[in-house]
Amino acid sequence: MRTAVVDIGTNSTRLLVADVEDGRIAAELERRSTVTRLGQGVDAGGRLQEEAIGRTFDTLAEYRRLIDRHHPDTALAVLTSAVRDADNGPRFARAVQERFGLAPHILSGAQEARLTFAGATSERDPADLTPTAVIDVGGGSTEIVIGAGHRARFHASTQAGVVRQTERHIRSDPPAPDELRELRADVARILAAAVPREERRGVSRGIGVAGTATSLGAISQRLEPYDPSRVHGYRVSRGECERILERLAALPLKERRRTPGLHPDRAPTIVAGVIILLEALALFDLRKLEVSEHDILRGAALELGAAT
Questions:
Q1: Vertex 189: Cα angle to 243 and 244 (nearest 5)
Q2: 46 vs 50, 96, 141, 144, CA distance in Å?
Q3: Res 180 pLDDT > 60
Q4: Is 262 helix (H, G, I), strand (E, B) or coil?
Q5: Which of 47, 105, 140, 234 could form a disulfide with 10 if both were Cys (CB 3.0 to 4.6 A apart)?
Q6: Pairing label, strands 235-237, 288-292
Q7: pTM: predicted TM-score of the whole model, two decimal places
Q8: Per-residue pLDDT tens for 256-265?
Q9: DSSP 3-state assignment of 201?
Q10: 99-125 pLDDT, tens digit each
C-alpha cells in the first residue's frame, strides 16, 4: 500500500511518501521538510495567523504536486500542537482537506506520542526491552514517550516547544544570558512537572526525533550537505550538546544561519531546541542522545495509513 503523509507542525511541514508492506515501511519514495512556522504567534494570540497559513498552504501545494507523481492509495495529514491549540484550528483542518485532498487528523497529545513512539521503534528488534525515552521536540510542544520494545507505557505532551519558548523568552540577538537562564528554567519546570519521578527511573536510552535532534546530529558532524544516512543512529553526548549550545547562543542570527549542518530556516529557534533536548536528557540523567530519522511520519504511515 502506498501512503502519503504530511505532518503539519508548529515549526515545520514535512512529507513522507512510502510503500507499506506487512506492517513495515518497505520503501521511502519521497521525504521533504520545510520550515513554515505555522504556530507563529499562537502562544500569545491563540489563533493561526494569515501570514503563517499562507506559508503553509504554499508548501502544501508543492507537496500535493509531489504526492500526485507517486499515485498513492491514500493521502493524509497529521496536525499537531499549533492546530489543536488554535481557535481557528478546525477551520484550517477543513481547508487542508478541501484545497489539497489530505484527510486531516488533528492529533491529541496522546495520539501524537503513540505515533511518534511507533515510528521511532518501527525498525528495532521488538525483543529489545531496554527502557527508552523518545523525545520529540516540536515547535509548540515536546512529546516524551517512555516504553520498551515497540510498546509505549507512558507519555507526556508538554507545552515546551521551540517556537513557543523562543517567543516567550528570547528578545535579544544574540540571546542575553538572563534570557537563556529563564528559558532553561521554564523548560526544566515544565518537563519535571510532566514526568513523575517514578517514570524517570530505569530509563537508560534516549532517542531524539524530528528537526531539532536531526539538526543537532548534523551540526555535531558539520554535515554539508545534510546526509540522513549519517544522522540516523548518530549518538551525541550531553557534553557535546552543551558545547553546541554555547556556540550557537553566542552568535547573532545572521551568523547562526551559516552554521555547518544547520538549515538556515531553523536558526531562529535552534537555541531553544537544544536547551529543551538538554533538559530532557538531564531529566532522565542520560549522558547521550541517539538521533533518529524515524518519527511520527513513519508512525502515521504505519497506523493511520492502513486505517484510512
A1: 10
A2: 13, 19, 14, 24
A3: yes
A4: coil
A5: 140
A6: antiparallel
A7: 0.87
A8: 999 999 999 9
A9: coil
A10: 999 999 999 888 888 899 989 998 888
Distance of CA 108 to the CA centre of its chain: 15
The predicted-structure confidence for 137-168, as pLDDT tens digits, reads as follows: 988 889 999 999 888 899 998 989 999 999 99
The neighbour count for residue 23, using CB atoms within 10 Å, is 9
Helix residue ranges per DSSP H, the chain: 42-45, 50-70, 81-85, 89-100, 109-120, 162-169, 177-194, 197-200, 210-221, 228-231, 238-249, 253-256, 270-283, 296-307
pLDDT at 308 over 60: no
Quickly tell me which residue has 523548560 as its cell. Answer: 187
Residue indicated by cell numbers 537555541: 271
The residue whose grid cell reads 507537496 is 63
Q: Which domains does the chain show, CATH number per domain?
A: 2-110 (3.30.420.40), 123-292 (3.30.420.150)
